[in-house]
Amino acid sequence: MTFSGTTLERNRKTALYPLDLELTERRVGLIGANGSGKSTLARLAGGLIRPSGGTVQVAGYDTAKDAKEVRRITGFVFQNPDSQIVYPVVEEDLAFGLKERGFPKAEHAERISRVMERLRISHLRGRLAHELSGGERQLVALAGVLVTEPDLLILDEPTTLLDLRHSRQISEHVAALPQTVIFVTHQLELLTEFERVIVLDQGRIIADSDPDDAIARYKKAMA
Ligand SMILES: Nc1ncnc2c1ncn2[C@@H]1O[C@H](COP(=O)(O)OP(=O)(O)OP(=O)(O)O)[C@@H](O)[C@H]1O
């Protein structure tokens, strides 16, 4: 993934100053203060928004020109699970994502079982999504993306509502995934095994390093 002179303006305010970034690692963490531009960068990477200037290339596609292709190979998990759970019953919701991405119906049940077991949420399969707790919904939203096995997984604070056990489980699960993962989080301990951690501050990259170094610099910047 390549960002070249990429910027993002919103309402004449700069959310992201020009940045050049080549991401080749399988595990990239994004950290930084509230409003520093993490979600903006993640959304640009997933082709959900277009840069105001410069380009973003994902798997050879320009996200401004081929947003559809980029979204096809990308799974995006939002901070707020309600923005991605569509169907009333959990299982139907997971099947919807599979159907939308063209997975044969015969595979649905097995794919859903596998991911739900891995996230230890099999018991939620027949439940109504709106009756679940915030954390349970977050897990279902994550499962909804994982079932489709996207090439690129972008997780924007996917563990904010989870208890310690589930956060760790997600982190272990993510560690075992073969795909490329971009992980936005304020839970710094979830990134200790990551290959690369980028620190944003007021729309600029202030550190880009290994987890220990990047986290230390982030803490210093926040002191
Ligand atoms: N839809 C929007 N319209 C206008 N401004 C926005 C919009 N989304 C984000 N912003 C602004 O862009 C800047 C960067 O926001 P962004 O969501 O990328 O930050 P973040 O680092 O993900 O923050 P947080 O840790 O709070 O989730 C902020 O100043 C924010 O107010």
TrEMBL record:
Pfam families for the chain: ABC_tran
Any GO molecular function: ATP hydrolysis activity
InterPro entries hit by this protein: AAA+_ATPase, ABC_transporter-like_ATP-bd, ABC_transporter-like_CS, ABC_transpr_CbiO/EcfA_su, ECF_ABC_transporter_ATP-bd, P-loop_NTPase
Database matches in Gene3D superfamilies: P-loop containing nucleotide triphosphate hydrolases
Family: Belongs to the ABC transporter superfamily.
PROSITE patterns, per the entry: ABC_TRANSPORTER_1, ABC_TRANSPORTER_2
Keyword Transcription regulation: no
Keywords noted in UniProt: ATP-binding, Nucleotide-binding, Transport
GO cellular component, one term: ATP-binding cassette (ABC) transporter complex
Residue intervals of the ABC transporter domain: 1-223
Listed name of the protein: ABC transporter ATP-binding protein
